[in-house]
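Take our chain:
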Amino acid sequence: MPCMAAPAWFSSPSDALTRLGATGYLADEATATVAFLAGALEKPVLIEGPAGVGKTEFAKAVARAADAELVRLQCYEGLDEARALYEWNYKKQLLRIQAAGVEGTGSQSWAEAHDEIFGEEFLLSRPLLTAIRRTEPTVLLIDEVDKTDVEVEGLLLEVLSDFQVTVPELGTIEAVRRPFVVLTSNAARELSEAVKRRCLYLHLDYPSASREREIVTRHVPELDEGVVAQLVDVVARLRELELKKAPSIAESVDWARTLIALQAGTLDAATIDATLGVVLKHVSDQDRARRELRLATGGPVASTTSAHPFR
């Protein structure tokens, strides 16, 4: 069955910018343009960038903005077809065979039993097939695709090219309504050109200081603007260090909420030292941050109420 006609996800880049912003996702013009084009051209979006810059949140925001269902395939090393596309309910099939008496001298032929047990009743739909079969607006998130083996990309090509899945026992299942597809990658490995050709491409990086202040303020409006500026400044300094995991945007927001919980009127050196665990999740990163930031002051960390405690 060919795909049914459907309204565009966004009417224009400016519409995407406004509606994504209404969900709390502050997109820039490039991101909003890609969001519009992905819906208008019915092409998947491949988003690359460091962890924590809003790649996964983009898909969630599109789903919220369009009042669509989010179907997520979380990728990992060892992911196979059974977990990505579909598998058969073998236990249920065995019970049906036994109940039908096909073992031994049973009256039902194996051919009849085979046709029966490889039907819809016994099919376990996984994220890719689930998204293809849905008739309602759907956002398909294929998260951290770079963590899978190269072979898994082959499973994606049929979906990304023709929005269909082939189940040998049932035939080809085509999308009735094409999902809005988002693939995310931390660039742990290079994806195949075949996959890239089928996608629009968007690179997200850490936001500018002004945009991150806007994001933090949007999510934690009760935090004083001066403290927000301090927080964003320190986060930027942390990201300049050689860390195992740099602070994400979400962790900046968490830090802001932490300051509200602690009723901290300023982000002084003592408060930073006490709350580093909110933004740095490795002991070695915390040690490096304390050491480097102390070196930047030319001496031990001391409390301060200046706007930039490590300058």
Remarks:
- The chain has three domains: 13-85+126-203, 88-117, 209-297.
- The mean pLDDT is 86.
